[in-house]
Amino acid sequence: MNSLNSPINPAWCRVNACANVGVQKPSSLKVGVNVSKEVMEAEGRFLVGTYARAPVVLSNGKACKLYDPEGREYLDLSSGIAVNALGHGDPDWLRALTLQATTLTHVSNVYYSIPQVELAKRLVACSFADRVFFSNSGTEANEAAIKFARKFQRFSHPDEKQPATQFISFTNSFHGRTMGAVALTSKEHYRSPFEPVMPGVTFLEYGNIQAATELIQRGNTAAVFVEPIQGEGGIYSATKEFLYSLRRACDDSGCLLVFDEVQCGLGRTGYLWAHEAYGVVPDIMTLAKPLAGGLPIGAVLVTERVATAISYGDHGSTFAGGPLVCNAALAVLDKISRPGFLASVSKKGLYFKELLIKKLGGNSHVKEVRGLGLIIGVELDVSASPLVNACLSSGLLILTAGKGNVLRLVPPLIITEQELEHAAKVLLECLPALDKAPSQPSLKLNHEFNHIRDSAGNSGSV
């Protein structure tokens, strides 16, 4: 461990110098200096090995392009896992961030702060909600929703010795990795190393109206957690009938309906909120990823009925809702919520989906292209990893989902049609990489993705 009297490491001097002069443009980087190799080796020595990272170091970015230290350019269709809705270095976001950083960054929730109140006002004004609770991430938002649901049931039934405490979640679901949220996440290998996780969670088939209605009507369920469009699970969408049946059953039983829009919310579908496509409103909605444009934030939006059950000290956070992150979020929300912006997401999403069907649909490995707006999945009958790796080598960053057999395409919402055309071209050129991929004979296809159809399918766990 270094002490205050230890010799100064030249590497830290270089980092500090870069911080003072600003990020270099790609053209001024020294191509040929293998900084990436050094960074990856250092990561292996100093960081806990929780991530199987792609073999690329990203050092700077602009709009929908990212660059490594050697100057290689990548078109970003991952958006930091659906976070960078405005791309990289948006000027309005930067102005909001810089202004707040020079004014006030953190005071904790012991005190009032203006950006937090302003952001809450804006979120209430553009949603079903009456009140907001801020957190630092999506999993924290879901943890808060769990606590709020249980407190609501206890508050609503003060004379019952055992109010409803159980939860319903669904196959293909992903709600986070902390102990409560991971208990709601269907993929067993996320939970099993850490058991016992929070008890009282039942997983039902995503889209199964009868099973969900019957279980909810038994009366011991505190809340139902559901993603209107599942991201990590494979880009599966609910149907209007399914969400409507959940709403009706919850109303009849006194159970709360929680929509997890951490990945599909905030403009990703071409609607500000994904549930707007269905005309079904939740009691609680959790948000995170794109809200602050890359800074850590989460939010829980609730009705007044739910908020009435929450008292001082029931929940809290030191960092959540700080002035810096909330001012950045105000800049993001201001752009994303504009009708013209949302219309452009819908238009580009439809164009990209049609382009992918045209270019990739004839390949024997491609089983389905599905999605809404700019959250698009391409389902394969083999592992997607060889294609992801080939695209990386060709300067295109994409993600996987589902059982590893779905391409998850979640570009910045500002991406141009020309960039989408380039992405489709690279995907087409890299498709031969799939011919050597292992097959997945157990794969069960979902042909009922579109939210306007009558039923929803699923293919097991995440």
Explain briefly what this protein structure is.
By secondary structure, the chain is an alpha/beta fold. The protein has helices spanning 10-21, 35-46, 79-82, 91-101, 114-125, 138-156, 179-183, 188-191, 209-216, 240-253, 304-307, 323-336, 339-360, 385-393, 417-430, and strands at residues 60-62, 65-67, 73-76, 131-135, 166-170, 201-204, 221-226, 229-230, 236-237, 256-260, 284-287, 298-302, 366-372, 375-380, 396-397, 399-401, 406-409. It is 35% helix and 15% strand.
Give structural notes.
This protein starts with 9 loop residues before the first helix and ends in a 32-residue tail after the last helix. It is globular, with a radius of gyration of 23 Å. The N terminus and C terminus are likely disordered. The chain is 35% helix and 15% strand. It is an alpha/beta fold and 462 residues long.
Give a quick set of tags describing it:
7-stranded mixed sheet, 4-stranded mixed sheet, 17 strands, 35% helix, 462 residues, alpha/beta
Assembly level: single chain
Supply Rg.
Answer: 23 Å
Strand order across the largest sheet: 4-12-11-10-7-5-6
Morphology call: globular
Supply the helix-strand structural class. alpha/beta
List the total number of helices.
15
Number of distinct beta strands: 17
Whole-number mean pLDDT: 90
Largest sheet at a glance? 7 strands, mixed
Q: Level of helix content?
A: 25-40%
- Report the sheet-strand fraction: 15-25%
